[in-house]
Design brief:
Blueprint lengths: L2 H29 L2 H13 L3 E3 L3 E4 L4 E11 L8 E12 L10 E8 L2 E6 L34 E16 L4 E14 L6 E9 L2 E9 L2 H5 L3 E9 L4 E9 L4 E10 L2 H7 L13 E10 L2 E11 L2 E12 L2 E10 L2 E2 L1 H5 L27 H4 L29 E8 L2 E3 L2 E3 L1 E9 L2 E11 L2 E10 L5 E13 H9 L4 E15 L2 H7 L1 E14 L3 H6 L1 H5 L9 E14 L2 E10 L4 E9 L3
Parallel strand pairs: 5-7, 6-7, 17-19, 18-20
Antiparallel strand pairs: 1-3, 2-3, 3-4, 4-5, 4-6, 7-8, 8-9, 9-10, 10-11, 11-12, 12-13, 13-14, 14-15, 15-16, 16-17, 19-22, 20-21, 22-23, 23-24, 24-25, 25-26, 26-27, 27-28, 28-29, 29-30
């Protein structure tokens, strides 16, 4: 017999056997309730009803495959969404050979357009914990199979989620979020081995790249503590988290490094916009982060926003649909003028995007003294050499967020005034700011007191109750009101209330009192001793001139303030030659 003929007959016989075997297997599978078996096994493993509304297909080569369409896994009883998971199609491929060794190697697991609804109920119970269903009927008296499949030896070589959607709703807070266009790829060699996942999601029309590593997926499935590394990259946020998570609550705890080009845009993107905020652009933060209960808790954190740098322990959450910041902050040298003038602060120099990564050493500041001393364009609250401004003052930034903070500051520039350091408590509530100043160092002296700004109405109300001691009077008064005529060490107390929309309106409405006392000083612009000697001397120009001066041992006055006019009947000045009592009127509006 021709050997070629023999080969053909043998090959033909083998093909026939394979075809017959395939036909027989297909017949057997079709006779079995594949849909029902799948639903029953999943329900037993998860404790949830599985429904396959579409067709079910089986393949045998090169892997044992199963494809089911229109699949839903039920939500918990009383859940908000009708299904916990719903997918247009699920495609599973299992290698045949490892099954003989009681090992399951899933070559592919593909979810097409899955929708996952994560929920936390009013009692804080999540819906994503899956527990085997407990049977109410006693098990049949049958021996276990001789070669059961070992689920601990199950591996997933390729898991893909295509065009998915994940939503989250917290009934305790009455809010949540939705991310779409979820495309994730991962693999799982063991429930006790690290699992890597990478892909992209879309949130509020912006794409995020995600890379995650879960140390022990089995722990996460059981709701136990597990290690997590998470990296996020997007247009508005670059972040790295290293720590641990508890799947039962979704809480995170670990170290974080995050930065971005605009804090305002990030806040708006995440659903808590900073209304009417000025600046708040480039930012960075490092430290320990705990996420839970709708709050982000930072400890031992360093941060930067614009050119402001600081550190502290604080909590960022939400109050009445606004960001709410609480805790303790220490701020290094910065210029406050851009934020109170409504003008954008200067951009962060190139190459300093993550300045928060390295905390300042003692004496190191975010801006040099020369940088924060350039204030020629900044207005003064009161300028005795200029007419009051009629330009409306915009305090709307006080409504951007709410806060309850203990603040420690280093050098701060406010208008033309430089505060060397301060310690205060500040509460900000929907445009009403109240602050208690425990200690402030400025111009060689110190101060304390309270001030309030109520910007809830178009006409802003301000209250100041402040006391200062041992000030360098000439430097202080020059920077505060543009008057450098008095030199010496000064004590000053103010209790003033103003109201209005412009500087002019506020000055015209000023009420309260003020007291000033200066010792061992000089009055510049006049020689009162010379004037008092003779009338003839009083007529000489050098006695009343910029270079003229009157040394004194003490100068004091208490002023009553009404409608912007200061009046005193207790003016007193003591020189070597004279004791001068008097009255004084200062008409600020005019």
């Amino acid at each position: 017999m021709n050997w070629k003929r023999v080969a053909l007959l043998v090959a033909g016989s083998l093909v026939t056997v394979v075809l017959l075997g395939g036909a027989l297997l297909t017949f057997l599978v079709l006779r079995l309730d594949v849909r029902g078996e799948i639903e029953r096994n999943v329900e037993a493993a998860t404790g949830r009803d599985l429904t396959i509304n579409g067709s079910v297909g089986v393949s045998y080569f090169p892997v044992l495959g199963l494809r089911a369409q229109d699949v839903t896994l039920a939500n918990v009883e009383g859940g908000r969404a009708p299904a916990f998971i719903a997918a247009d199609e699920i495609d599973i491929g299992v290698e045949l050979r490892p099954l003989l060794d009681r090992q399951v190697n899933v070559r592919r697991l593909v979810f097409q357009r899955p929708r996952v609804a994560l929920e936390v109920d009013a009692n804080g119970q999540p819906n994503w914990l899956l527990r085997p269903r407990v049977s109410t009927t006693p098990p049949p008296n049958t021996p276990p199979p001789e070669n059961p499949v070992d689920v601990t030896r199950t591996s997933l070589r390729s898991v893909r989620i295509n065009d998915g959607e994940v939503s989250f709703f917290d009934a305790r807070r009455g809010g949540g979020w939705v991310v779409g266009a979820v495309d994730i790829t991962t693999a799982l060699t063991s429930l006790d081995a690290p699992m890597e996942a990478q892909g992209t999601v879309r949130y509020n029309d912006r794409e995020l790249e995600i890379n995650a590593s879960i140390a022990r997926p089995g722990d996460a499935i059981r709701g136990e503590l597990t290690q997590l590394i998470l990296n996020i990259q997007s247009e508005l946020l670059t972040a790295e988290f290293r720590g641990q998570t508890v799947a039962t609550s979704g809480e995170l705890a670990g170290t974080v490094r995050a930065s971005g080009p605009s804090l305002r845009q990030l806040a708006s993107w995440t659903g808590t916009p900073l209304q009417n905020a000025v600046g708040l652009e480039q930012f960075a933060v490092t430290g320990r982060l705990t996420v839970g209960g709708g709050a982000y808790t930072f400890s031992n954190a360093g941060f930067s926003v614009d050119q402001v740098r600081g550190r502290g322990d604080f909590v960022l959450s939400e109050l009445r649909e606004k960001p709410y910041l609480s805790g303790r902050l220490e701020l290094f040298d910065f210029d406050l003028n851009p934020y109170i003038s409504g003008q954008a602060p200067p951009p962060v120099p190139e190459g300093q995007a993550e300045v928060a990564a390295a905390m300042p050493d003692a004496g190191q500041t975010s801006q040099s003294t020369a940088e924060i001393a350039t204030v020629e364009a900044a207005p003064r609250a009161v300028d005795v050499l200029e007419a009051p401004s009629e330009t409306p003052i915009d305090f709307s930034g006080l409504k951007a967020f709410n806060a309850d903070l203990e603040l420690v500051t280093h050098a701060v520039l406010i208008q033309h005034m430089r505060i060397e350091s301060s310690r205060l408590n500040l509460v900000l509530n929907d445009g009403h700011m109240a602050s208690t100043v425990h200690n402030v160092s400025l111009y060689g002296g110190s101060g304390r007191g309270r001030f309030e700004i109520d910007a809830r109405e178009p006409s802003t109300r301000m209250t100041q109750d402040l006391a200062f001691t041992n000030l360098d009077a000439r430097r202080f008064l020059t920077d505060a009101i543009n008057f450098g005529g008095i030199e010496g060490r000064a004590e000053l107390s103010l209790n003033v209330r103003v109201q209005g929309r412009t500087q002019s309106e506020m000055i015209n409405s000023a009420d309260g009192y003020a007291h000033i006392e200066v010792v061992s000083g000089v009055l510049h612009g006049v020689d009162l001793g010379g004037v008092a000697t003779t009338i003839r001397n009083a007529l000489r120009g050098e006695l009343i001139a910029p270079e003229a001066q009157t040394p004194f041992q003490g100068l004091s006055a208490t002023f009553a303030i009404a409608d912007g006019v200061l009046a005193s009947d207790s003016l007193s000045m003591n020189t070597t030659d004279l004791r001068i009592p008097g009255i004084a009127v200062i008409d600020l509006p005019n």
